[in-house]
Amino acid sequence: MTVIFSKKCEYGLQAVLYMSAKGNDCVCPAEEISKKLKIPKEFVSKILQNLTESGIVDSKKGKSGGFMLAKDPSKIRLIDIVAAIDGLDLFNSCVLGFPSC
User: What is the pLDDT of residues 25-47, one digit of tens each?
Assistant: First the structure.
C-alpha cells in the first residue's frame, strides 16, 4: 500500500477537523487536542505551529490560550493543510515510484 500523506499530515488534518467541529469561537489548548486525538502533545504543538505559520490556524497565548482556526472552516482546503505540513512535492512525482508516469 502506498502512503500518500505523512503521519504528521494526517494528524494535522485531524486537528483541523477537530477544531472545526468545536466551532469558530473555540480556543483549543494543544493538550486538549492531544488527549482527544491520542497524539503526543509535543507533536501536536509542532504541527499546529506549522499550520499557524501558513495562516490556517491562529494561536492565543496565556492562561486561556490555545489554538483556533484562522478562517472559516468552509474556506480551508485540504490541499492547504497538505502544503503547510508535507509540501506539494509529492504531487510532482509518480505515485508508483517510477521516474516518470
Answer: 889 999 999 999 999 999 999 99
User: Which residues contact residue 36 at a Cβ distance below 8 angstroms, ignoring those fewer than 6 apart?
Assistant: 18
Separation between Cα atoms, residue 86 and residue 8, nearest integer Å: 8
- pTM summary value: 0.84
85 close to 32: Cβ distance less than 8 angstroms: no
C-alpha cell at position 35:
488527549
Domain carrying residue 17: 8-87
* Residues paired with 68 in a beta bridge: 58
Count of structural domains within the chain: 1
Task: CATH number of the domain at 20, please.
Answer: 1.10.10.10
Q: How far is CA 37 from CA 3, 15, 49, 96, 101, in A?
A: 20, 8, 17, 31, 36
DSSP class of residue 28 equals B
